[in-house]
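cron nightly-structures :: item 1 of 1
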Amino acid sequence: MPHMHTILTAQRDAFMADLPVTRAVRLDRLKRAAAMVKDNATRFCDAVSEDFGHRSREQTMMTDIGASLAPIAHAAKHLDRWMQRDRRPVQFPLGLLGAKAWVEYQPKGVVGIIAPWNFPVNLLMAPLAGVLAAGNRAMAKTSEYTPATAALFEEIVGRYFAPEEVAIVTGGPDVGKAFAALPFDHLIFTGATAIGRHILHAAADNLTPVTLELGGKSPVILGASADIARATERVTLGKMMNAGQICLAPDYMLVPAADEAKVVDGIKAAASAMYPTLLANADYTSVVNDRHHQRLTDWIADARAKGATVEVVNPANEDFGSANSRKMPLHIVRDATDDMIVMQEEIFGPVLPIRRYDGIDDAIAQVNRRDRPLGLYYFGTDEGERRRVLDRTISGGVTLDDVIFHISMEDLPFGGSGPSGMGAYHGIEGFRTFSHARAVFKQSKLDIAKLAGLKPPYGAAAAKTIARMMR
């Protein structure tokens, strides 16, 4: 893809010519990024709904438009502090003799952003906020699964940015593969773990540093002390938002054996209250395409075939089989076992397995025998039990007494662990991810090398320095 190399070269040349990147330039770019989203909010809502088959304007305004403006505003507000040099202590005796040390956060250059389809505006713009705040240029690859949104980005970006500042790249898997292989100064990918492995391989030939925001099976642990009605409502809201097509969606629930029936009833009640109908309900999102709808259908059939009881939450008794729609009701999978695909793969849809546990250590063991998840959720008032869950599990992030919300906190780093990702962004962590932490040491006016005995021929001064070092 020669044109991508041309864009990258132009961006890097412009970047080097314009160093240093001032605060005013960074703020101006952030302002233009916000304007690009805000000015075209209605068109973005329409494009996302077209790509999904249906998604409500209100959801897109909250999860894509508002959630894109928030990190941009946060970066602009805190940019002065983030850009300040970070003074560091100088070890004895150099500090006493006048030496100084500090870290300067320099922009890296050109950052590649590979955005997914599930939140196609937010998951391009949120990393872009950190990229621009850090003083970089950006090339962003949109998802081929959201072509209307991609086309809109491609159409409007030139009104707000010169191509040497921010460029949009569209296309299918071949374009994505070539994009990941470009010699960026940093690359951030949000998407599936399997694709993340290919991204890492592609970037390795250029030694490009990579941030991977992946997914995995984010568990909900319902403690014995939890308020079941409140917990099930919050889990249901998180599971059915965007029809479960969220990297942080609660993927499966671990519940005390004695509470399973109450949990199932609570989920059904919450889902029915939020979505009394589904097919004509403007608030409920469609599964993004036929392939994903068929995948979910096959996984549900696999669970049934292997002994699961699947309860479909369909309060209006609608006929989904004959509907010309990819809307899918919530499926609660009871008696889910490890040999079922729904307990092996990230679900990314309105399917919720429920498993019983016997004591909190059993729940923790069930989490720990799987790959480290992107998110973990615990409900309960038992402080000792909560602390044990936090201490004995590893996940990208945690929300207590709710689900998903930790991603919305701009001052918290967002990232995974192991197969759920590497690196983090949001807030100051994002600024530093997309910056080079450059160490600077300023020597004192004294001849330190002579005083410390570093100059040959070695003698008494060198012996004293060595003796001090060995202490």
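cron nightly-structures :: done
DSSP finds 16 helices and 18 strands in the chain.
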